[in-house]
Amino acid sequence: MDTSKKVVGIVGSYRKNGFIDTAIAQILASAEHQGAETQKIYLQDQHIEFCTNCRACMQEPGTQRGKCVLEDDMDGVLQTIESADSLVIGAPVNCGNVNALTRRFLERCACYGYWPWDTPAPKMRNPTIRKKAVLVLSSAAPALMARWLTGALGALKNLAKMLGAKPIGVLWIGLANSQEAELSDKDKKQAQQLGQKLAVA
Fold it and tell me: Can you give the three-state secondary structure of 39-89, one letter per residue?
């Protein structure tokens, strides 16, 4: 019987081999070293339309995510994520929050909510948190400053919750200004530790 954990990384950056991609790769490699099965999803490689806020996916009750009326790659992406035990979710900070690529994906995760018309607010279809998540962010500003002065961390926490995951750690890469995405020794060590945590029960 295969008892290995499956860890899926979601890269919300436009830059392959950039800071976000590099950090997620390090985390996944560490998890794989502990025996986990890993997979990486590049959001920029997926055909994901913008949410039109029609709320069709939020009308029918039940614990399963609602069906979106848009025909694209989103259903397949979510199936992969749902098959995982743990997630790594990464996005850069643009204009004070996560970038538009990640935001588009986040908004399409509205299907995990139940919000029939004429009710005041949405509810999570399945409030049970079954997965662990590591959140990865990068910013040109120092990590401590960006962490508290932007809405990016809150956005990724909300995304993790919609995907049924509880964050167990955050890797924030500050001063990400160079064209070459070389992680510091401190960031590499933290990435390794976080990957190990995702791979264990």
Answer: EEEEHHHCCCCCCCCCCHHHCCCCCCCCCCCCCCCHHHHHHHHHCCCEEEE
Could you list the residue range(s) of the whole structural domain that residue 71 is in? Answer: 6-199
Please check whether residue 152 lies inside any domain of the structure: yes
Query: Taking the CB of residue 192, how many other CB atoms lie within 10 A of it?
Result: 16
Beta strands in the chain (DSSP E): 6-11, 37-42, 86-94, 97-98, 113-114, 123-124, 131-138, 165-173
Rounded to two decimals, what is the model's pTM?
A: 0.95
Assigned domain for 14 exists: yes
In tens, the pLDDT along 30-50 reads 999 999 999 999 999 999 999
Task: Provide the number of structural domains found in the chain.
Answer: 1
CA distance 89 to 41: 10
Q: What are phi and psi of 81, to 5 degrees?
A: -65, -40
Q: Is residue 81 part of a domain?
A: yes
CATH number for 128:
3.40.50.360
